[in-house]
What we know:
2 domains, about 15% strand, Creatine Amidinohydrolase, six-stranded mixed beta sheet, Creatine Amidinohydrolase, Chain A, domain 1
Amino acid sequence: MIDSLRRTFRLGLVLLAVLPAAVSAQDAPLFTTDFTPEEFAARRARVYDAIGSGSVAVIQGEPTPRGYVRFRQSNEFYYLSGIEVPHAYLLLDGSSRRATVFLPHRDARRESSEGKMLSAEDAELVRELSGIDDVAPLEALSARLGALMRRANLEAVYIPHQPAEGLAESRDLALRRVQDRLADPFDGRVGRESGFIGLVRERFPAYAIRDLSPVLDELRTIKSEAEIALIRKATVLSGVAIMEAMRSVQPGVVEREIDALARFIYLRGGAQGDAYYSLVASGPNAWYPHYHKGARTMQAGEWLLFDFAPDVGYYMSDVTRMMPVSGRFTPAQREIYGFYKTAYRHILDRIRPGVTPKQIKTEAVAAMRADLAGWKFSRDIDRKAAQDFVDGYARGAEASTTSLGHAVGMATHDVGDYTGVLRPGMVFTIEPALRIPEEQTYIRLEDLIVIRENGAEIISDFVPMEIDAIEALMAEPGLLQRYLADELMPGTGSGP
């Protein structure tokens, strides 16, 4: 078998070497097919309603990325336009209710190398594809803003104040990026958004500048069916990757090998990248909820935490499962995981529209306490960990602004207020964690939930979390074992 794999690998190298360099194909559309122009127009209409007829809004697109990286538009700009062009700007006029996109001029040399890109010279095509009302070159934006100042009823210019969400980025990390740079005494640059606001204020001091971010956050809180379809696909791909990880995990596998396995599944399934860095954490690494180095070799008797999802058409997912590296739960693992999973199910089964997270948590805590009273633990540290978990969840239920988890959408940690009554179209995860500090053991499950009119849809519920189902899946042959890294490319990995 190994000789056959080596021959296949070498044949692949030969084919890559002899393929004509001039062969090219541009199958990717110039404008998204995931949403209709009408859906983007409806989003812009809600912005017009929010800012009023006496105001305009300006949204700055993402710049050219560093390095050989595929361009990905910022979430905010894409949400309102669908245009994937670096250094673009969008002007929304609340008076005329018309949208103008400002694009760079055509770069013929770049197009000859990378393929067709939309530019200011494609005004008719851009209008036809996207439904945008007007198209202008980038340098015309300043003149347009200056002309607007002569309008008697102009009240304000709305600009997003929060940092734009880029590649594999939620707002929390975008804020951290800006704060880290400001804290560097040899850098200290303000964020791109702050710089843009400052330039507009300096060049057009008569404008009152207002924050568009709260408006966009509210719009993104409730997802359309087209948005949910993309989140569903991202969730299915994440679940399939977790299930393949269950088949492939065993002592001697390195965390990064599971990372690679998941990426293959995501890209093969149509994802455009990662939703966030992979959290493949074995043994004590799982103690750190966002561990992502992927460098550790798994050992028998340990846990593996898998928390990873793809970016599918600018929409994310977030799913987590635990599995025993050895393929079977030890008696102690069965006891503590069994209790945690049962408590977790009490939360999932009570999620529904028309109630608050506080109500759901209060109901779940009552059921958890009843289970805890009769649950058998062989170890005192496990009983204490279970008690601490329930007590901690109960304290969360008592908080006036508690939430069940975090929103998911265009960002893995999406925007929007999820502390109030749950409404149809909300999408979020729950991820309560149980800790055994004496052993640095961390146990977490996470599922993707969509609130519907008549209940809650748990999209990721097909991914095994029951002990017997996990063990059965882990007994099946895994992809990693069929394609051994060390045998194919000696010296490049630490295959099992």
